[in-house]
Each structure stands twice: as C-alpha cells, then as structure tokens.
Write a structure and sequence with these properties.
By secondary structure, this protein is an alpha+beta fold. Helices cover 46% and strands 14% of the residues. Helix 1 packs antiparallel against helix 2.
C-alpha cells in the first residue's frame, strides 16, 4: 500500500502493517473525540513515525496513487477532524 504524508511524500508499506496503523488511528480518533489535544499530538506523531519506520520512502519524483493520505505533522486537531471518516483516518 502507498501512504502519503501531506507535505512530506509517499511511503510504500506492506499490508501486514495495517493492524499497527489502525491501532494508532483508533487512539487518535478517541483523543480527538474527547478533545485531548496533548494526546492527539502524541498519537499523530506516533502514527506518522510508524509510517516512516515501517515503510520504504518513494523518490520525490514518483507520483503513485496513495491508498492512504495522512495529515502533516503540524496539522491542527480541527484540520485532522475535517479529514476523518467514520473509521478514522485509516479505513477498516
């Protein structure tokens, strides 16, 4: 799967990592719903770090269709809320 982090680029991740990303996404959704800004910042950072750690960065000139688009590290709680579906940032 190809994951884009807005403002940074794209990473290729094995589908086997989806469970780890979904766990962080669930935490992020809970923190957003409760208005826990500090927890939101921490979990968003952990989610983006997991993508960077588990994935292989694609070259900047590569423009692959992204299956997942994640917010930039400095995105506000309100900006991320606008990106959410009922499942969170990561469907499933």
């Amino acid at each position: 799967m190809i994951v884009r982090i807005m403002g940074e680029g794209q990473w290729k991740l094995a589908d086997s990592h989806l469970a780890e990303l979904n766990k962080l996404d669930d935490e992020l959704l809970t923190e957003m719903e409760s208005g826990d800004t500090e927890g939101f910042r921490r979990t968003l950072g952990a989610l983006l770090d997991a993508v960077r750690r588990l994935g292989e960065p694609l070259p900047d000139e590569a423009l692959e269709p992204s299956e997942l688009i994640l917010p930039a590290p400095d995105a506000s709680l309100e900006e991320v809320r606008a990106l959410l579906s009922d499942d969170g940032l990561i469907p499933g």
